[in-house]
Design brief:
about 150 residues; mainly alpha; 7 helices; globular
């Protein structure tokens, strides 16, 4: 556990570069309950996967997974969080493979062991940091944060 009160750490996060803050907001998104994650899904173009009514939200979740891998990769987390960040990236990769092959449903958020583990890992990272869940205030528009081909 870091030795800073919650308010101090959050203030420092807000004063740092945006990728650092964004990385923690993404961790917070993945710490949310499945219901809250679904409610936080925003509009997304079909950049990542083929989406229809059976896998609604798959593009947004894929974007969040890829953005956390890109933004959160190592250097945007404190030294004490590197092991958890690496483990989270491995889990995100497994989940991304499932999404990429269109094996997606809202029920998967509640039942899939990788999603359950990812939520537990994200919550553990936030607890270790001494901060509460603090996801992005509005849905992300991915072209603002990553290059999309």
């Amino acid at each position: 556990m870091i030795n800073k009160p919650h308010e101090t750490y959050l203030r420092e996060l807000r004063e740092t570069d945006s990728p650092y803050l964004l990385a923690w907001q993404l961790v917070s998104f993945f710490a949310l309950t499945p219901e809250d994650q679904r409610a936080a899904v925003g509009p997304c173009e079909p950049w990542f996967v083929k989406e229809d009514s059976s896998n609604a939200g798959a593009n947004y979740f894929t974007g969040m997974l890829l953005l956390l891998c890109q933004t959160g990769h190592g250097h945007h987390f404190d030294d004490w969080a590197h092991a958890e960040a690496d483990e989270m990236e491995e889990t995100l990769t497994r989940i991304h493979r499932k999404l990429h092959f269109y094996n997606w449903s809202a029920a998967q958020l509640q039942q899939d062991q990788d999603w359950i583990y990812l939520r537990a890992l994200a919550n553990a990272m936030l607890e270790k940091a001494g901060i509460w869940i603090n996801p992005p205030k509005k849905p992300l528009w991915f072209p603002e944060h990553m290059e999309i081909d």
